Amino acid sequence: MNVEEEDVFQPAPEDVIQDWMLNWVIRGVTLDQSYKKEDYKPITPERFEGLKQFTFSAGTHPEAYPETLDIYVHSLEGLQYGKDLYKIDLSYNKIKDLSPLSKLTNLGDLRFYMNELTTLKPLSGLVNLERLNCGHNTISDLTPLKKMSKLKYLAMESNNIKTLNGLEGCTSLQEVTLRNNNITDISALEGVTNIEKMLWLGDNKITDISALKNMTKLKELDLINNQVSDITPLANLRNLESLNLGNNKNISDITPLTELTKLTKGKLNLSGTKIETKKDLLFEVINVNRLIEKFNANTVELGDKTNVIAARKAYNKASEDAKSYINENRISVAEKNIKLLEEGKAVEPDSSLSKYDKYYEADKSTINIFVGNADRQPLKNVKFSVKKQGSDEVLSEISTDGNGIAEYTFPTAVKTLTYNISLNEESKFTGDKDAITVEVNEEGQIGKINGTEVDKPSINRTLQLNAGEVLCVNKQNLEKAIKKAETVKEAGHTEESYKALKNALAQANSVNENENATQEQIDAAEEKLINAIDGLEKGPDYKTLHIAFVDSKGVAIPGLKFTVGNSWTPGTTEIESDADGLAEYTTQGRSYNYYTIDMLESKKYEKVRIRLVEEQSKVTKIEVYYVKGEYGANSELIKSITVDDPADLSFFVEVAEKEKEKLDLKGLQTQLSIARGLKKADYTEESWNAFYPVFWEANEVRNNEDATQQQVDEARTKLEQAIAGLEKIVKPEPKPEPTPEVKKVSSVALKTTVYTYNGKVKRPTVVAKDDKKKVISSSNYKVKYASGCKNVGKYSVTVTFKNGYKGKYIKTFTIVPKGTQLKSLKAAKKSFKVTWARQKTQVSGYQLQYARNKSFKSSVKTSTISNNKTVSKTVTKLTAKKTYYVRVRTYKKVKVNGKTMKLYSGWSTVKKTTVK
Fold first, then answer.
1. Which residues is 30 bridged to in the sheet?
2. Residue pLDDT, tens place only, 157-199
3. How many structural domains comprise the chain?
4. Domain that holds residue 483
5. CB 227 within 8 A of CB 206
6. PANTHER family in the record, alphabetically (predicted)?
7. Is the entire prediction scored with pTM above 0.90?
8. How far apart are alpha carbons 851 and 884 in whole angstroms?
9. Last residue of a domain, one of 472, 500, 515
10. Which residue among 202, 247, 609, 868 has the highest number of C-beta atoms inside a 10 angstrom radius?
């Protein structure tokens, strides 16, 4: 929506919307997007019928509009008639009062981000609200929300909130943003247990988080920059995937986090806590617990044996520190019960493990088929074919491993399907040879096996090879082990154990490629490879970087691309941050190497460079820079890490957003205004058809937030040329009618048009001249001055002619505020402090300017001080050893034709200083 200054005006008295900008908005959305003055019709209550939503946030880019136009909505008066409204987005305006909305009970989505609200009380009856965003206001009380049981999304960051009283009734909340308030008490959240997507409580003063203990659905929690020490309540939040505990300096125990098995390492921030160095230990524990949670020790089945063995191996390889956080009994009880099942006996539950029953979630997308002989001993290399019912196409072949387990994971589909899993080489066996039917829903979840509903997707088969029968050679398990071994990286393992794996892998590949290999050779190669994988020993990984890229709010940035170069190899390697903002890089492991990780150009983010030093195959130093200046000559160091521990190689990098180029749109805006005033009927069809596409393209450039200055300038030039190329239709000139001779007024002016406030009434003298440049006597006109003419403001003078002179002229003059003078200017390190004399009367505030040249012609910085009691300011982030020129003036906010504007005094004398 382009705001043309002439289309924003004082509404008619009978118009229900008296706010100039809101009137402009409602005119457009109720008149098929016509905002033009010539289409103006006073807005009546009936005009709101059927209006469901509207959006106006011009304040996001105030520089794009005429400086003389107040583009902000100030009042909602009149919206009480919008009974059908569902969504209102008036972010980035200057609204203080929401009262007109108090009875609009159909409202479901309200957005008043960055306004001037102090209370939500008028919204207390809007019980159908589902979304509310009032971030960046000065609201302190949330109790008006207590009846909003349908509210799902709440954003109230950067307000003055201290407690969350009122949210206890918001039982449907899914996403909550309460960052940057003064919150100390969150007890109101104790019964709000359905929050699932995110809860952001960062940058507050919270000490007690016990109210979160039942928020078991929550996936993302942000508590950065608080005063939390006890994180025990988080132990119940087992769906957490992202957790930010940064800068809670008294957190000292990782125990509550050890069973949060859905946590992602790249989405856990522990920096600034006493456990920040224990992140690797924590995930060593979590990785073992993830394996343990694949089975329930008290209800284990033979099909769980593979998972139980994997958990035991992982536990045995864990460090002693990690083992101290793991309940090993969950493995040993499962092992005991597997043995009982193999002996044909029932399992023996352990009551001490009953609390873990709720932790187990069966993988209902994967079927486990256990095959054993008559003595329940597992049979290996028994093959099955998977087909869709009614089809002969084999989707997959699966075979039992050394524990007698064959697995198949069903894919998602567009509808529920039935699969048949049939035994291969059926004639060689006796026993349970019937095909297995599996009903699977569209999400790949198993519902029934052989017509019976199941909780655990597993089934047992008893088979016996006939005398003398030998199964065909089967390499499936060997190939599975090879794939697993190929994913293992050298980094983080001891040299000896990794070398043993590489040797076993080479032998396994050789056997796999040998068409004449016997089953005995295949099984031996597989066993050796599995033993090598299990025998891998952890060693300190000083070569692999784990970098999490985040923005200023701690939100992950995916898709950042980097090139990596070093002393030995040019920068041909590329890495990219993933969906979680994570990027990894493993160095070459040389005796000495120097690496540069350079971010590729990004439209949105400032360039970052990471430098590494590698000595004796270890990264010993990391430096992170913002790249500034040509070729990075003026780069700024933002982080330096001396690597004393492998954990030091996992770190966050905050990437700054680029400042958007401030475009000069005045020239283009002028040409667009001219173009909009043109009428097709006045020009030839050919010239109009050449002009209009250029006009349309220029309008598109004007509305494009990503447009460059070059595109803007080119659009202006083309439009200017297109306007000049228009050819008017020649119409016959009408014959002029004779006009009676009158005395002519050539000019009317005020002798003085600008005064400085001194508390006295101003009455400027009128000077009128005729067409012969002679002064017209004051007896030939009447002068009427506006009321007041004393305080700072703009005033009108109406001159009405008589005695044969005709015409009525309105002239204006201005009374500007009294100026001020600089009292002192003191330099400091890359900064200075400036002090000026206070002006108490008819002054709203001050405007400070400083520049590097005394003429203030370029690179001028301006700062507005909105309180007239403030008489000093410290300016920082300056360039050392440079001279700055400083001046100050006063301003006063006044109303002119119903619009707020600023009137400025003259500038003070200039002072200069050289910063240190």
1. none
2. 999 999 999 999 999 999 999 999 999 999 999 999 999 999 9
3. 8
4. 476-534
5. yes
6. IG(IMMUNOGLOBULIN) AND LRR(LEUCINE RICH REPEAT) DOMAINS, LEUCINE RICH REPEAT CONTAINING 53
7. no
8. 6
9. 472
10. 202
